[in-house]
Amino acid sequence: MRVAVVGGGSIGVAWAVVFARAGFEVTVQEPDAARREAVPREIEERGGGPVAVHADLEAALEGAEHVQECAPEDLTLKRELFERLTNLTEDVPLASSSSAITASQFAPGNPRALVAHPGNPPHLIPVVELVPAPFTDPAIVDRVETTMQQAGMSPVRLRKEIEGFIFNRLQGAVLREAYCLVRDGVADVDDIDRVVREGIGRRWAVIGPFETADLNTRGGIAEHARRLGPAYARMGAERGQDDPWTPELVEHVTAERRRLLPLDQWEERVAWRDRQLAERAPR
Fold first, then answer.
1. How far is Cα 116 from Cα 128, in angstroms, rounded to an integer?
2. Predicted confidence (pLDDT) per residue in 221-239, tens digit
3. Cα(34)–Cα(152) distance, rounded to whole angstroms?
4. Full-model pTM
5. CATH hierarchy code of domain 167-280
């Protein structure tokens, strides 16, 4: 399979590593001469294989079965680039590494366009968010999902477009509160980073926020919401947020968790979590 990576910055280099490592034939298009010279060395240093680097976009796209756009986060630039990508390709998925801009904004009406947003750097963080626009052809999304799986990534398909997707909305929520805690004199920057690094982050490296809540309270996530929901609501209200965990929402989340983990398996999963954390504990 041949993949064209458009943009040879840090994200483009990391994507090239991902695809080359999976055995794909990779081309990288980069307009800046200094960057073109640096790209092969940087890819090799990060564990990737040989790639072809081009200044010309048309040359880089020749024969490509997947296009991964990695241009700067600039709406005007992305709009112009996607017009060119559309005109220079046929029946090829056009995936953007956009961090927050949706396909509806940069490629309105284009059935081949979607977002495939990675964690940074993608050659070390396997999750990739697939965010189609309402007009994106579902068959295109299927093809991108298959490509990402073959490349060793862990694709997550979003059901609807939303600015920032999942990754940056979750990350942004934590970062907004971190700034507030510094502003309010609660703790300094290093203290907050340490709480995440040695606490929340270590736990979230094993399980996510919903499973954390589910396993932290005997009785599961419904009991967690009953006990701690009011406190979280008060904390949100301090920041002007009004997003209550309604009984219907808690019931919906509980049903999903119970499908994933019946309560009769709760003790076993808690023990598994503890083993995982113990293996990651500093020696």
1. 6
2. 999 999 999 999 999 999 9
3. 30
4. 0.93
5. 1.10.1040.10
